[in-house]
# Entry
Amino acid sequence: MEFEIKTTLRKEEVQAFQRLSCRTVLKGRTTAMRLGLLALGVVVAVGATAQIRTGEGITLAIWGYILAVLSIAGSVLMERYLAWKSVSRIQGEPEELFFFSEDNLLAESGKEKIIHRYDKLIAGAESQDYFIVFLDRDSGYVLPKEKFVVGDPAQFKAFLERKMGKKIPFVKI
# Structure
């Protein structure tokens, strides 16, 4: 069984990659950072409230509330910020070709060709519109389901799970 996907790396794909990675391979780190920011915001807000109740350091209390709001907002908006940061690094919309054979994955972008063994891929994920193949915790390939040139996206998940030896979760984004 073989699959071929021809696509361009657009902003939407990069955002999908970031969202899926935050909810799969980076879930522990993302959750810890969000909870840390939330806890910081709550602690600073409590401290600012204590400053106001004692009647001392009103200016300090105001800055405390500002920091608390920023920390809590950061915990809520972290995933969007990481997606924005990833998109800002992309130059243009490079065309990419992915060829999945029984032996390996060939990724081609411009003149660069990279061959990956399936057992070296750390994880995969599926959403309504994409498959994501993770090379490591911070990089991978975005494969839009509508861009399959050869092969059926409906059969791709089972093929990839068999080749990688890992389950591929469905993640809502």
